[in-house]
Amino acid sequence: MLPPGSTIGILGGGQLGRMMAVAAIQLGYRVIGYSPPGDNVAAEVCTDFFANGWGDKAALAAFAQKCDVITWEFENVPLKAVEALPQDRIAPHPRALETAQDRLNEKRFAEAQGARPAPYAAAATEADFKAAVERIGAPGILKTAREGYDGKGQWRVQSLKEADAVRFPGKPCVYEGFVDFEAEFSVILVRGEDGEVRYWDSPANVHQDGMLASSTLPAGALIAAQVEEARSIAAKVAAALGYIGVLTLEFFATSDGPVFNEMAPRVHNSGHWTIEGAATSQFENHIRAICGLPLGSTDTRFAHVEMRNIVGPDALTAHTMLAEEGEPHLHLYGKAEAKEGRKMGHVTRVSNAGPIA
Ligand code: AMP
Asked: Cβ distance 132 to 121 under 8 Å?
């Protein structure tokens, strides 16, 4: 168990790091962040923050020297930077990053653990892409293998003809068939040093323009019927990675069972509701796991929970949401500019009475 007063290093400076740091501070730890210069909203709540590039070996060494354990809040931290850090102090194991940074690796790895993804094919070149569309058919989605998030680096292909109009991005991609899903959900689990696994309830996730818009509990009968199978896949993935901390797997609920979409080796937007809606939040349990503390209960505390993202200029009037039904809890991330399409905050509402209006 890492004693109080120890220092946790967090790679990445976004809202996930910010909420993770708040949880760590509450447990009596100090937090030092590391991320290239930019709108690092985690810096506001860190004891110290290194605004340095991922290739800055000297800064990475100085950062590591101050940290008792190092984790990440952002899965695109370059592996080279992670490799420059003391390996025995990093949690989860960097192999989780390596697996999740490439969609192709990730799908193959998940498949090996029993997951069923949508039909997919590697598309390193435009010719591969055309061949993949021929083979898998349309509609489908072309996704860059690396560095896509929130629907960025994705192009929908509605018909075979339309594939000709898609400008191939010139980097390795994956083409996958469009899944005719009824709903989407995520499995978020925490795995401790000793291999103990706890799951939060799986909310129904609704996306807009490729970005999460809301997560709602209870998730409904269809999702409820598929959670067990999805959990068992997630647990296998976690065990195969020797994972310590919070891990997320996203699924499509189809009439044919759960179809694996992707994994995130970190806390996840669809778990923000756990701050007020669960006995222990995903952020706190991640910190507990990487510090070797007893894990907290993941039980849901309310009959109804809804988390809604606040995107772009809506953040400017977000305080009016405090007057909504359902004991609204507002989280604003302190980002400098409320740009269109940018995640600025979220609001969680809870109720034991009935569905939230
Ligand atoms: P991703 O970044 O891959 O999670 O994609 C973001 C969102 O786009 C997903 O949560 C879905 O709503 C949608 N999406 C991605 N891939 C597919 C697919 N193969 N079939 C249907 N919808 C998809």
From this structure: yes
Q: Domain 7-90 is in which class?
A: alpha beta
CB 191 within 8 A of CB 206: no
pLDDT of residue 334: 97
Same topology, domains 119-177 and 183-351? Answer is: no
pLDDT for res 78: 97
Task: Enumerate long-range contacts of 233-236, CB under 8 Å, 24 or more apart.
Answer: 233/110, 233/113, 233/114, 233/115, 233/187, 233/258, 233/260, 234/187, 234/189, 234/199, 235/189, 235/197, 236/113, 236/114
**Residue 324 CA from chain centroid, whole number:** 27
Q: Give distance in angstroms: CA of 352 to centre of ligand 1.
A: 32
Token representation of residue 32: 């030092």
* HSE-up (13 A, CA, CB side) for residue 105: 12
Distance 156 CA to ligand 1 centre (A): 10
Where do we find the tokens 């680096």?
153
- Ligand 1 pocket, mutate which of 76, 261, 270 (most atoms under 8 A from CB): 261
151 pocket-lining for ligand 1 (C-beta < 6 Å): yes
Distance 262 CA to ligand 1 centre (A): 9
DSSP per residue, 118-160: PPEEEESSHHHHHHHHHHH-SSEEEEESBS--TTTTEEEE-ST
Domain boundaries, the chain: 7-90, 119-177, 183-351
**Amino acid at residue number 145:** A
Q: For the residues 122-142, what does the mean pLDDT come to?
A: 94
Distance 286 CA to ligand 1 centre (A): 26
**Mean of the per-residue pLDDT values of the chain:** 96
| 262 pocket-lining for ligand 1 (C-beta < 6 Å) | yes
What CATH number is given for 183-351 in this structure? 3.30.470.20
348 within 8 A of 270, measured Cβ to Cβ: no
pTM attached to this predicted model: 0.97
Just give the CATH number of 119-177: 3.30.1490.20
Of 345, 347, 317, give the one whose Cα is nearest residue 15.
Answer: 345
